[in-house]
Amino acid sequence: MKKITYKDAGVNIEAGYESVERIKKHVKKTFSKNVISDLGGFGGLFALPSGYNNPVLVSGTDGVGTKLVISQKMDKHNTIGIDCVAMCVNDIICQGAKPLFFLDYIACGKNNPERIEQIVAGVAEGCLQSEASLIGGETAEMPDMYTEDEYDIAGFAVGIADREKIITGKNIKEGDVVLGIPSSGIHSNGFSLVRKLFFNHSQFSLDQYIQEFGATLGETLLTPTKIYYHSAFKAITENNIKGISHITGGGFYENIPRMIPQGLTANIYKNRIPKLPVFEMMQKLGNLEDDDMYNTFNMGIGFVMVVSPEDVDTVVSSIKQGKEETIILGEIANGDQGVALWP
């Protein structure tokens, strides 16, 4: 009787070993002095840094949604890991946490070592941008769950903050100012609608050059999610930031109210937000109302902060030192909407 091996079932252990060897150089360059384990252990070990009076760990997990479909169709895998890190790290920064370490999970139909290396290289780049150590991960080869060219990626970030400095939004009050930091584009949410508009409703191709974008459609859609650590964290540590929202799935309408106390509303003025051509084109293609767009996408603003009027100048200056511009989007008023968008 013929022997049936694990490889016959579609799982190539040798390819897994090769993937691990390929990613080592990318992973190790993210290690800080607090990493006290090497690759290959059952758990990643990280020594908590000193300098915190009452340290609290802050965690976040996320993926990149169907942006992966674009990555896989283009056979370009070296930036999707940046997106994965960004989606997690930007979330924990909203609580005032400094990123410490990151773990990734990749599920695939076939373990292609070259492709896995590209993916993890992107994860490592995202970790470097956020000063987080990539201390562990998992690559699961899952035949029959995915085709050979399909994969999914998710991540998990852990950061640290002093308990008394955690940002909750509870001190936001009427008259406070709402600031925004621009996005790099669509980021990593809403791609089911993006794909429907460009490829089902309209007949665009990924390699099609779009004059308004100054790039191909594929390049524009795969622009990595901006990581706000270097631009925003200095402002967070040196100033009294009352509330922060990371604008992802659900756009302005879902994410801004998450930091606003009951009885208050963030008045946002849309004419202050620079219009990105990719959002303008999608709105025309889908004949979408402004509310539809702001309920789905970041519309050009990826990070929103609330500060007291007297702190605006110093916060703007801090963010400028991180090589980012700041836009005064509006102000906090009495009301129950959480957020209200004005022309």
TrEMBL record:
<dbReference type="InterPro" id="IPR010918">
    <property type="entry name" value="PurM-like_C_dom"/>
</dbReference>
<feature type="domain" description="PurM-like N-terminal">
    <location>
        <begin position="56"/>
        <end position="161"/>
    </location>
</feature>
<dbReference type="GO" id="GO:0046084">
    <property type="term" value="P:adenine biosynthetic process"/>
</dbReference>
<dbReference type="GO" id="GO:0004637">
    <property type="term" value="F:phosphoribosylamine-glycine ligase activity"/>
</dbReference>
<dbReference type="InterPro" id="IPR004733">
    <property type="entry name" value="PurM_cligase"/>
</dbReference>
<dbReference type="GO" id="GO:0005524">
    <property type="term" value="F:ATP binding"/>
</dbReference>
<keyword id="KW-0658">Purine biosynthesis</keyword>
<keyword id="KW-0963">Cytoplasm</keyword>
<comment type="pathway">
    <text>Purine metabolism; IMP biosynthesis via de novo pathway; 5-amino-1-(5-phospho-D-ribosyl)imidazole from N(2)-formyl-N(1)-(5-phospho-D-ribosyl)glycinamide: step 2/2.</text>
</comment>
<protein>
    <recommendedName>
        <fullName>Phosphoribosylformylglycinamidine cyclo-ligase</fullName>
        <ecNumber>6.3.3.1</ecNumber>
    </recommendedName>
</protein>
<dbReference type="InterPro" id="IPR036676">
    <property type="entry name" value="PurM-like_C_sf"/>
</dbReference>
<dbReference type="InterPro" id="IPR036921">
    <property type="entry name" value="PurM-like_N_sf"/>
</dbReference>
<keyword id="KW-0436">Ligase</keyword>
<dbReference type="GO" id="GO:0006189">
    <property type="term" value="P:'de novo' IMP biosynthetic process"/>
</dbReference>
<dbReference type="GO" id="GO:0004641">
    <property type="term" value="F:phosphoribosylformylglycinamidine cyclo-ligase activity"/>
</dbReference>
<feature type="domain" description="PurM-like C-terminal">
    <location>
        <begin position="173"/>
        <end position="339"/>
    </location>
</feature>
<dbReference type="GO" id="GO:0005829">
    <property type="term" value="C:cytosol"/>
</dbReference>
<keyword id="KW-0547">Nucleotide-binding</keyword>
<keyword id="KW-0067">ATP-binding</keyword>
<comment type="similarity">
    <text>Belongs to the AIR synthase family.</text>
</comment>
<dbReference type="Pfam" id="PF00586">
    <property type="entry name" value="AIRS"/>
</dbReference>
<dbReference type="Pfam" id="PF02769">
    <property type="entry name" value="AIRS_C"/>
</dbReference>
<dbReference type="InterPro" id="IPR016188">
    <property type="entry name" value="PurM-like_N"/>
</dbReference>
